[in-house]
TrEMBL record:
<keyword id="KW-0796">Tight junction</keyword>
<dbReference type="InterPro" id="IPR004031">
    <property type="entry name" value="PMP22/EMP/MP20/Claudin"/>
</dbReference>
<dbReference type="InterPro" id="IPR006187">
    <property type="entry name" value="Claudin"/>
</dbReference>
<dbReference type="GO" id="GO:0005923">
    <property type="term" value="C:bicellular tight junction"/>
</dbReference>
<keyword id="KW-0965">Cell junction</keyword>
<dbReference type="Pfam" id="PF00822">
    <property type="entry name" value="PMP22_Claudin"/>
</dbReference>
<feature type="transmembrane region" description="Helical">
    <location>
        <begin position="117"/>
        <end position="141"/>
    </location>
</feature>
<dbReference type="GO" id="GO:0005886">
    <property type="term" value="C:plasma membrane"/>
</dbReference>
<feature type="transmembrane region" description="Helical">
    <location>
        <begin position="78"/>
        <end position="96"/>
    </location>
</feature>
<comment type="similarity">
    <text>Belongs to the claudin family.</text>
</comment>
<protein>
    <submittedName>
        <fullName>Claudin-22</fullName>
    </submittedName>
</protein>
<feature type="transmembrane region" description="Helical">
    <location>
        <begin position="166"/>
        <end position="188"/>
    </location>
</feature>
<keyword id="KW-1003">Cell membrane</keyword>
<keyword id="KW-0472">Membrane</keyword>
<keyword id="KW-1133">Transmembrane helix</keyword>
<keyword id="KW-0812">Transmembrane</keyword>
<dbReference type="GO" id="GO:0005198">
    <property type="term" value="F:structural molecule activity"/>
</dbReference>
Length: 227
């Protein structure tokens, strides 16, 4: 099977979207959204995520889940909702884009409908990128604000960026690239319209042979009898 330029672009967009969706799911589960190191005890590190807070002491980690959703800071509450929405949008976009791509061959799906599915899937992937980048950037912004807050004494430890934030930024970039590639792949190349009415056999008009027809189209002069 020869891959067209549109098919290659759609496959690349699907792979980028899938990679971004997986990274987004992993970033949501990881507790390393914020890290805090104690100067008095360098072997002890605190990490905070969307679902739990953990204390790492040498090679032992003790985690405790948050008891109440309302007790969380506002940025973590919104991040939970937006990350869950990002997973749903990303998965739905992958399914629609997969059905609308050239990789999925089904004769009952018309090519115009497949292009619309691919366009809708790319739009959903771009929306998933926005709903991933927004909570990650918001948590990073509040972390920077708290780190440089002059009202907090200098002896108080400050939260810093965790590895999950960098993974979330990477996930948002992959989702955005995948969605844009899927959207632009709709404009690539030309595709024949497999319409039954246009491609159906058309029989040429039937003309009866001259010797079998009952009437002639031309009148020929009758030869005269010379004798």
């Amino acid at each position: 099977m020869a891959w067209s330029l549109r098919g290659k672009a759609q496959l690349g967009g699907l792979l980028l979207s899938l990679l971004g969706w997986v990274c987004s799911c992993v970033a949501t589960i990881l507790p390393q959204w914020k890290t805090l190191s104690l100067d008095l005890n360098e072997m002890e590190t605190w990490v905070m995520g969307l679902w739990e807070v953990c204390v790492n002491q040498e090679e032992v980690a003790v985690c405790k889940a948050f008891e109440s959703f309302l007790s969380l800071p506002q940025e973590l509450q919104v991040s939970r909702i937006l990350m869950a929405a990002s997973h749903g949008l990303g998965l739905l976009g992958l399914l629609l884009s997969g059905f609308g791509s050239e990789c999925f061959q089904l004769h009952r799906i018309r090519w115009v409908f497949k292009r619309r599915l691919c366009l809708l899937g790319g739009t959903l992937e771009a929306s998933a990128a926005a709903t991933t980048l927004l909570p990650v950037s918001w948590v990073a912004y509040t972390t920077v604000q708290d780190f440089w807050d002059n009202s907090i004494p200098e002896i108080v430890p400050r939260w810093e960026f965790g590895d999950a934030l960098y993974l979330g930024w990477a996930a948002g970039i992959f989702l955005a690239l995948g969605g844009l590639v899927l959207i632009f792949s709709v404009c690539l190349g030309k595709e024949d319209v497999p319409s039954l009415q246009m491609a159906g056999p058309t029989a040429p008009p039937f003309y009866a042979p001259a010797d079998e027809s009952s009437a002639s189209f031309y009148l020929t002069p009758r030869p005269r009898n010379l004798f």
